[in-house]
Design brief:
By secondary structure, the chain is α+β, with helices and mostly antiparallel strands. It has seven helices and seven strands; from the N terminus they run H-E-H-H-H-E-E-H-E-H-E-H-E-E. The protein has a single domain, classed as Gcn5-related N-acetyltransferase (GNAT) (Aminopeptidase, 3-Layer(aba) Sandwich).
């Protein structure tokens, strides 16, 4: 299946109870694989779907003044309604997200990687960001995360710089910062 065909078979949807079981299984699969929950709006920190889906209240309590509103979407394969990834768009950028996290974070289920889903989710999210009036967005990744780096670059990302990871988000200690002009 070509990348264009995959695009037609993937959609971004807001989390609803229809996907509750899959989202909680997503959490289990990511934990079992010892993965980072990038773009998952704190899924790793909750016990239930209803607790997770209360993004604004839960994250405002956690981050206080550092809270940044976000739009959370599930990457759903149309043919079977399977949740293959989670992506979020954070706006506006706080100083923390400007330095380390960027506007967009995403992850893909371990069993669904290397199928082009991260790139398609990002492409769909960039379209959403354009509709929200964004002119450019910041994405970051661990310097050693080749898959994420390639996904960002394929979607127009231009490396601005690398920063020392002083907060423990990366595996190698260096975060790359990419801008995508919309």
């Amino acid at each position: 299946m070509s990348a264009m065909q995959k695009y037609m078979y993937l959609k971004l949807v807001r989390p609803t109870n229809q996907y509750a079981e899959q989202v909680m299984q997503y959490k289990k699969d990511m934990l079992a694989n010892n993965d980072s929950f990038d773009g998952c709006a704190g899924l790793e920190e909750v016990d239930t779907f209803s607790e997770w889906i209360d993004f604004e209240n839960r994250l405002k309590r956690k981050y206080g003044e550092g809270y940044v509103p976000s739009e959370v979407f599930l990457g759903v394969r149309i043919e079977d309604e399977k949740v293959v990834g989670i992506i979020d768009y954070r706006h506006p950028l706080s100083p923390f997200f400007f330095q380390y996290g960027g506007n967009i974070g995403y992850s893909v289920l371990p069993s669904e990687r290397r199928k082009g889903y991260a790139g398609e989710m990002l492409k769909l999210m960039l379209s959403f960001c354009r509709k929200c009036g964004e002119r450019k967005v910041l994405l970051t990744c661990d310097k050693t995360n080749d898959a994420s780096r390639k996904t960002i670059i394929r979607n127009g990302g231009i490396l601005e710089n690398e920063v020392q990871d002083d907060v423990g988000l990366s595996e190698c200690g260096i975060i790359q910062r990419y801008w995508i002009t919309l």
